[in-house]
Each structure stands twice: as C-alpha cells, then as structure tokens.
Amino acid sequence: MLRFSIIFILNIVCASFMWANDTFLFQAEKEGDKIKIFGTLHDLPLQALPPAIMDYIQNHEVLITENTQALEPLTLNICEKMGLLRNSEEPNYYDCLIEAEKEELEAYAIPFLKHKQATNLGLDQLNTNGLYQAYLMGHFVTGMDYALLHHYKNHKLILGLEDLQEISQSFEQLTIHDLKCELYNHAGFGSEEHKRSENLYLSGDIPALEENDLMVQRRNLDWLPTLLNYHRQYGEKAIVCVGYQHLFGEFGILRLLEEAGYKIMRANQAIEFSDFSSFL
Q1: How many Cβ atoms are within 10 Å of 200's Cβ, its own excluded?
Q2: How many domains does the chain have?
C-alpha cells in the first residue's frame, strides 16, 4: 500500500513538473481586439494537453485550423487535383520499393487511407509525393490535430487556413530515392531528435527553428490574411490551433502579427497572459 501511494504521488509530481512552464497558448491584441492562438504538436495525443487548455479550446465557438482535410474523405478526384496520382508514363513506385520499405510504408499509409475512407485508392496508384504524404499523414491520425477536429466537428464551426491543393503544393516533388531515404529513416519519427522535440514541447520550451524553412515561411505568409479575415468575422468566438513551429521565427505567425501592430501575450497553465513581445 505504501509503495502504491509513493508511486501515485510521484506520478502527480512528474505530471505537474512536465507542464511547469508556460503553455503554447498565445494572445495577440490590438486596439482591444484579441486573437487567441494555440500551438499543437501534430503527432502527440490530445491527452498530452493540460486540462485547462482543453477547457479553454472548448469555450470557443469557432475552431480555425491549418486545414479541414482530416474531416473529408480522400477521393480519386481530390488526389488528382492535389497532384498525388502517377500518370501512365510513370513507373509503379510502390513496386520499386524493397520489402522492408513496403512494410514501413504500409504500416502508416494503409491506416491513413482507411481513415480517409479511400476505398478505391491503392498505393500503386500514387506517385512519390502521394506515397510520402500518405505515409507522413499516417503518423498524425492519432495526434492532437486530427483529434481536435473529430472531437469538435459536431459542436463548433471549423475553418481552414488553406485548401487541399495548397497543402500538396507545399511539398517539394520527391524522387524515388528521396522516398526510400525517408522510409529508411522513418521520416525522423522515433529518433532521438524527435523525442527531444516532444519533450521540449511538453516542457513549454520555444523551438530553435531554421530560418531557411521556406515551406513554413510560405504557408505562414499565405495564412496571415485569411487568419485576420476570420478574426474580423468571428472575433473572440474563434481560436486558432496550428502546429506550434508555425508560431516562431522571423516569419512565424507571432512575429507577423507583431509587425502588424499586435501585442503578443503568452499564457501559463492557469490561463494567465503575460507579455511575450520582448522574446520576439
């Protein structure tokens, strides 16, 4: 009994310590208008978030996300628009993989296609971009972004900052060699660097981002007008939930909002906001 009590107390202490720092909930304020922004980590489960954050998100009527594609079935027509299908002149890239590569791909891509109700779509129909995107998204179907969308789809108005075509255009065209390298390295998932990133997120540390991530920069710049337009429509009824690495850096959403005249505040676990502008 004593041993159980000690373990129980240690679990409480460890859980409290894990979220001892400030959260990734931010507020951008300008002339009395407030935009609430929460940074997610795509592959972590929703249960990793502090209950206060979940309560805070729940209290908003409108959820603004990177996109709403998680809620939509993946059809052949959509895949064609996104440029994910191989044409008749291309080889069957799936057959170009060795058995170990196929197993790694299938472990994530097949559950993703099933999740997306893509019953008429086989891996042999996809080009290298299609295979990689299915593989990558397969890591996220149990993560907090998908969970937020599915949890609130019948309770909130859900809006996206980009459409499916814009998502796909963010990916550079991969060669079969690139795809094989990604599969061999498990796209970085499970690596020491990835584990360290998860721990840093849970401890509230700001990531050190490479400023030459052109894909993130381009998406952030494209998102900003849409984000501000949504805010004009819905005001404080809305909360923005996007990957937390989109928030920081020279072209991060927080910096872009600050340059537009907004004061940036950061929330702690008690949802008390304090000035964050000096960090930016």
Answers
A1: 14
A2: 1
In a domain, 1, yes or no: no
199 falls within a domain: yes
Residue 99 domain flag = yes
**In this predicted model, what pLDDT tens digit does every residue of 89-140 receive, in sequence order?**
999 999 999 999 999 999 999 999 999 999 899 999 999 999 999 999 999 9
117: left (phi over 0), alpha (psi -120 to 50) or beta: left
DSSP 173-225: PPPHHHHHHHHHTGGGTTSHHHHHHHHHHHTTPPP---TT-HHHHHHHHHHHH
Whole-number average pLDDT of the chain: 88
* pLDDT for 244: 94
Given this model, what pLDDT does residue 272 score?
93
Examine residue 17 and state whether it is found in any structural domain, yes or no: no
Q: What is the pTM of this model?
A: 0.86
Q: Which domain does 36 fall in, by range?
A: 22-275
